[in-house]
Structure formats: C-alpha cells, structure tokens
Amino acid sequence: MIKKVIIANRGEIAARIIRTCTKMGIQTVAVYSEADQKAPFVAMADESFLLGPPRVNESYLNIDKILSIAKECGADAVHPGYGFLSENGRFAERCEAEGLTFIGPSSHVMDMMGSKIAARNAMEKANIPIVPGTNEAVASAEAAVQIANEIGYPIMLKASAGGGGIGMQVVNNDEELIKAFESNTKRAQTFFGDGSMFLEKKIEGARHIEIQLIADHFGNVFHLFERECSIQRRNQKVLEEAPSPFISEETRKKMGEAAVNAAKALKYTNAGTIEFLVDENENFYFLEMNTRIQVEHPVTEEITGLDIVELQLNIANKKELTINQDTLSINGHAIEVRIYAEDPKTFFPSPGHISTYEEPKTNKVRLETAVSNNYDVTPFYDPMISKLIVSGENRLEAINNLKQALLKFKIEGIKTNIPMLLKIVDNEEFMKGNTTTSFVQEHYLTELHTN
Amino acid sequence: MTEVKANMAGNVWKVVVKQGDSVEADQDVVILESMKMEIPIATEEAGTVKELKVAEGDFVNEGDIIAIID
C-alpha cells in the first residue's frame, strides 16, 4: 500500500493531488524550484524539497534530483501530474527501478502513444477510426506536397513527437506546406528532439471531444463519458465542458465503447484520455491519447461524483475498480475555464506581480488554484494560474453560474483572459452549443477586430 | 531613429542581430521567451543597430526598450 507520494509537478495539479492524498491518509512530498518557493502547493504538502533553479531542466525535468529526494524522504510512489515528466517512459522506468510505484500506465504504452505516428497505427489496428493521413514520417517537403495533393487541402501538418500545439500547422496549398514543413521540422527538433512530421486531412467544422478512461490491473476498463474541449486558443484549451451539448446519446455510447476497446487492445492501465475529432455528421476520428491525468479532469468528476486522483491511487495499489458501466450516469452539467496570465487580445503571456487575488464565492463553484494574493507569476512555466469549475442542473444553469463567478473573480496586477471568457459566455453560438475548434477565431477574434 | 520595444514580459532567449548590423523593416531583432511561448520582436523601420539594450538571458518587462535602430 502506498504510504507516501512524491509529486513530480507544481501549481494547481500538485495542490489537487495533495488534497486527495490527504483525504486518503497518504503522506505527501512536494518538490519545487527556486521560482516556486512561495507557491501554495509547497506549503500544503507534509514535506517539501527544493529542486534547484527555475529552468525546467534543472528543476521539474531533473529526474536524478527528483529520484534522490524520493529516496531521501522515503516515498514509495510518484505522481507525475500532467506535462513535465508525466508522459516520459524513461522516467517511469527509472521510478520502477528505484522501487517507486509510478502512478500511471506502463512505459511501453506511454512510448507508443507518445509517438503520434505509432499511436495512429495502433488505433487503426484496434479498429478505431483515424483521420485520413500518413502512417509514417514524411521524408521531405517534396514528398509532403505529393501526399497532400493526394489527400487534398486543407492539411494539418503535425510533429510526431509534438504536444501542446507545438509543431502543428494548418496549410492550404503547396507553397504554405513547403514553408511550414521546414520551420516545423526545425521547431519539433528543438522542442522534442525529434523532427519527424506527418500529415492529416483537416476535418472541417470539427469539434474536439475526448473520452475519459479508467483501467485497472484486472482487465477492467471503463469510460467516464466525454468532455467537449473545442474552445481553444494557440491550440490549447480554454473552456471545457461535460457532457457535450452536441453529440447524441448513440454517438456518446459509440465513442465510449470505441475508447474502451482501444484501451483494452493496448492493455492500458490507470487514467487516460482518448481525444477525438468529431465532424458535423458526428463521425469521430482518433486524434491522440494522453496517458496521464488531464487538466480538465474536474468536469468529469463533477458530473460523475468520482475522484479521479483517488481512482489513480487505488489502481496503483493494485485494487480492482468497483465501477459499473451500466449504472454510471451523467448528473447535471459542468464547465471549466482556465484562467491564464495573458493578454486577452493577443494571448501573449503576462507574468508579473498579482497584487489582488480574490476567488468568487458564488453558486456551485470549485477552484483549483496555483497562486495567491500578493504573488509573483514567473515567466518560467505555463501561464495557467487557476481553473474555475462550475456546475448546474443543466447547461444553462452552469453557464449562468459561470458568468456570475467570472464577474466576481478579481485578479489585479497582471493581465488575465477573464475578459475573453466573459465574452465567450455571452456569445450566442456558445449558448447554442455551436462550438467548433475554430470558435475563438470565428466568434471572438473576428468580433474583437471589427469593434 | 526608432526604438524596438518588448511587447510582453519575458526572458531574452536569443539576440539575432549585432550592434552595427544593417536591418530591414520587419526583421527580427531578438526572440523573447515567456511561459513556454517564443515571440520574435522585429524592428518596424530599416536602419543600423545603434545600440542593443539587452543580452541573452535578461528579463524584460512589457514596454522595455530592446534596441535602438538609427
């Protein structure tokens, strides 16, 4: 049984993991960089250890240092959160070699899903629909042009090792593709150490809808329904909700079953998410699999009443899941918005000193927070400073609760995307549930520029 | 004479010109890095790099002068 967990992460997710561990009577160890000495998660943990300077290679990606702290404090398990080392197969292997339980799937499945090309092939083998495109790395810009003309523009050019929207670009013609191929190959090489690129057809009017999976070591795999995450900027999610206002009950069932079948074929364990693109006719295509807890997991927790971090810990303890797929149901509606320290018009980062931070105490809100009053947001990490989750009996009630909460959220000293979120909740198309991946471009930026 | 200013707070990731270089309008002068995002900062006008106010690794605030182009 796990008695002490070291959290190889920071910010709101570190705090979130500590909360569940404490509830379960598990000791927690935080690790932090020099830039995060005053972060709330550090004070929340039972023990905390300094990793080193702010740069991620010297702190949150420093495997040797994290493992030596784990040994020193007598931790028996590692929770990697999301980002950083969470999908790093080598880290998982090192943990296991040191006798630490890695709270996540096997390194084998992580590696396979970490390569988008290998993931496409694995899904095709498991009979999951994939977006038309290439199943191997494209050798050159010339080869890319030839394939693009066979599939037809517009095309998504993607880095096989990519993530967070980096190394990914829509191209509409040969000229754009040639230019993007060179620059994205270079970028992917710099960021991920792997410049392999592949092509996918761009699905027009697509929605991003993902299925939360949970799987134990006894072959049980369940899906906890979908999350609709189409509203994105810079290819990163801004607002997520569950259930999706778009898909029919039949599609929900089909997508859930497809995701469960894929996880079974992969012999997947622990929490994971399969992301799909869903077109206007509710056809769905595999996009990628995230082999870790997701930022937006709270909306699923709100509609199912489950604690996903608790399930992760139970699975890591080799307990059998007691969920019954047939009796699992969706209760009400939940929406999460990510509060980013950024300019709401250009989406440029806005680090700096938060002079006032007051969270809303309105109806049915839940907050996952990385910062506090009188706090310095540094330029070293992701711009997300908190997550606001609201729920309601139905979507309309959740939207109203979200609006009230956003109006009462007071953050001064830095710029945040709250003005953007307020515009989204007032948007007619959002109210109708007409959210596609081009929502921000079509209904936010366009309006911003015409006014 | 024109001043090239930072349009966001962040670290100077790369300085891509040298003092004395002649630059064209819209040519990148430095690349800033903040919160996992790289933003190239270009000069609006052509000229010669008269002075570089920053070095790689420096922290700049939004509105800080990065270079003077003459």
UniProtKB/TrEMBL annotation, chain A:
Keyword Transmembrane helix appears in the UniProt entry: no
E.C. numbers: 6.3.4.14
Domain of life: Bacteria
Catalytic activity: N(6)-biotinyl-L-lysyl-[protein] + hydrogencarbonate + ATP = N(6)-carboxybiotinyl-L-lysyl-[protein] + ADP + phosphate + H(+)
Main function: This protein is a component of the acetyl coenzyme A carboxylase complex; first, biotin carboxylase catalyzes the carboxylation of the carrier protein and then the transcarboxylase transfers the carboxyl group to form malonyl-CoA.
Secretion signal span: none
Pathways per UniProt: Lipid metabolism; malonyl-CoA biosynthesis; malonyl-CoA from acetyl-CoA: step 1/1
Pfam families to which the protein is assigned, alphabetical: Biotin_carb_C (PF02785), Biotin_carb_N (PF00289), CPSase_L_D2 (PF02786)
The protein's name in its UniProt record: biotin carboxylase
TrEMBL record, chain B:
Keyword vocabulary terms for this entry: Biotin
Keyword Kinase: no
Domain Lipoyl-binding as annotated: residue spans: 1-70
InterPro entries for the chain: Biotin_Carboxyl_Carrier/Decarb, Biotin_lipoyl, Single_hybrid_motif
CDD domains in the record: biotinyl_domain
Record-linked NCBIfam families: PRK05889.1, PRK08225.1
PANTHER family assigned to the protein according to its UniProt record, in alphabetical order: OXALOACETATE DECARBOXYLASE ALPHA CHAIN (PTHR45266)
Name of the protein: Acetyl-CoA carboxylase biotin carboxyl carrier protein
